[in-house]
Each structure stands twice: as C-alpha cells, then as structure tokens.
Fold this protein.
Amino acid sequence: GNSVTQMEGPVTLSEEAFLTINCTYTATGYPSLFWYVQYPGEGLQLLLKATKADDKGSNKGFEATYRKETTSFHLEKGSVQVSDSAVYFCALRLTGGGNKLTFGTGTQLKVEL
Amino acid sequence: DAGITQSPRYKITETGRQVTLMCHQTWSHSYMFWYRQDLGHGLRLIYYSAAADITDKGEVPDGYVVSRSKTENFPLTLESATRSQTSVYFCASSESGPSSAWEQYFGPGTRLTVT
C-alpha cells in the first residue's frame, strides 16, 4: 500500500542551524507530495508541495525536491528560527486517489536560542 | 467567519455516550475530511466526502458515523464512545479539479477525551 516514512523526532537545533527532515514514500503510482506544518495548538497548514518528479517546492525559506529515483521529498531550510518550532508532516496524494492524503507520523522540530 | 471551523474545541465525555463533532466550511469546497491525530500515528483518515450526500470510509472508520446533507457541513458522530477514541480530531476541506494540487485546509481541531 501507500505509505510515508519520516525521521523520528524531536529534532532540536540552535537558531540559524541548517535543517533537514527526511521523508521517503512508497506509492503504487505517481503521487503529489506535500509538507504540512502544525504550530502548537493549531491545525495543519500547507507549507509546500510538488506534483511531479524533479519539481522543487519552496515557501518561507523551506525547500523540498521531489526525487523519484530515491522516492524522497526531504525538507530543508538553511537557517532556522525559533518561530519554526512546530511539527512537520510529509504527505502524499495519488492521482485519481479521491484527493485523499496519506501522512507520515510527523517530526517535531524545536529551535532554541 | 470565513474558513473552516470546528466545534466544540474541547470535549470530555464518558464511555458509551454518543458525541457529535461539528465541522463547517464557508468556501463551498467539494471535498471534506475527518482525521484523528494520535502520537506515533500522525494523522489517519476516518471518513471523507466528495460532495453532499456522498461519503466514504477512510483508514479507521470503525465506531464513527458521518453525514453530509449540506456542502458546508460535515458532522462526525461517535455512536458509543470508547477510551480508544480519545484523540484530537481534525476536519479539512478541499477544492477539486485538475488545476489545483488539491490543497487541504484544516480546521483548528477538537480535543476529545473519553473517560
């Protein structure tokens, strides 16, 4: 079946450090890939997305590239801030899959001064 | 208010009681979804709806009932609550069509505790 695997958290970084959160997927077709972010006490909101191989999604300094050969969509940011502390979810949607998303388990990021 | 809202935001109920969680969206989105969020599981889809009067099961539908008589509302009912249904529940909505990447917009969540 379809699944998304994320690195275990929490990830704790100092402000201005480089961030990578790994995400790999298993899918029967050609999915669209998403990163959602959940700030404390809130619902999820879309951070970035990529709909085909080699696409790069970017937003708020975060980037992720859709790598079909490695079935990966790793999230990166060059310099994190305290305000980036949140839980990050990788997700996939299959074409023709009724708009359903399959989520990873989430990775908590804590950024300290 | 524009957007997607959920009520109540917090609910404590007893085992065996029926409880309904409400979800309302103002965008006239075709799709609506219910997820539960549990530590170690991420978000799991309970039910979804492609349009009014069209609903379908997700990954974990047992013990839940949904209806969608109007496009903007998608209530989730726990017919006889169990402790295993203690969770945070999120409603989401989405447009449909080939031009969008079908972003899902999430409500703020309902934290349900079953005692």
Summary: The mean pLDDT of chain A is 93. The interface with chain B takes residues 32, 34, 36, 41-46, 49, 51, 89, 93, 98-101, 103-106 of chain A (CB under 8 Å).
